[in-house]
């Protein structure tokens, strides 16, 4: 654990693994709400997406190493940010999810979380590092570029019409 922050804000960092996921949930729900609000094409996905579904990969994928880092405001004891990172059996490191509460942005919290994730991946000697950015959340790209992450390809996902009869007017 370490502290950091602005002139009046002390942030304490807690590093662990899956045991910290319950503390991540309230912050993850806020991130999911941002994705829901910003998505142009996949609102249905974020509307129906649950924290339990999001966490399945962490417990079900064989040989997946997971690191969770929480940032806690020392004065209020409130969790204000998190980063979940993973390394799979092919030694691909991923920053799976990162969120910082609005009032704690620009205080170096996200920077500390990213640096901790990158150091952890260095220690595990990953071969490649990736981050998936949700459609509609492209405004975070400059943040990730500061750590050497750049768009390599854009993956398009098919959205089936809800009911083809509605489009054609047929009964």
Q: Give the number of helices.
A: 6
The biggest sheet amounts to: 6 strands, mixed
Overall SS class: alpha+beta
Radius of gyration: 18 Å
Q: If strands are numbered along the chain, what order do they take across the biggest sheet?
A: 1-2-3-4-5-6
Q: What is the terminal-to-terminal distance?
A: 63 Å
Indicate the proportion of strand residues: 15-25%
Give the SSE order as H and E letters.
EEHHHEEEHEHH
Task: Estimate the helix proportion, in percent.
Answer: 25-40%
β-strand number: 6
Low-confidence stretches: 1-6
- Gross geometry: globular
Average pLDDT number: 91
Written account of the structure:
By secondary structure, the chain is of the alpha+beta class. Helices cover 35% and strands 23% of the residues. The chain contains six helices and six strands. Strands 1-2-3-4-5-6 form a six-stranded mixed β-sheet, sandwiched between helices. β3 and β4 form a beta hairpin. The longest helix is centred in the N-terminal third of the chain and has 18 residues, at 21-38. The protein is globular and about 50 Å long. It starts with a strand and ends with a helix. Residues 1-6 have low confidence and may be disordered.
Question: Descriptors for this entry?
Answer:
171 residues; six-stranded mixed β-sheet; 35% helix; alpha+beta; 6 helices; disordered N terminus; globular
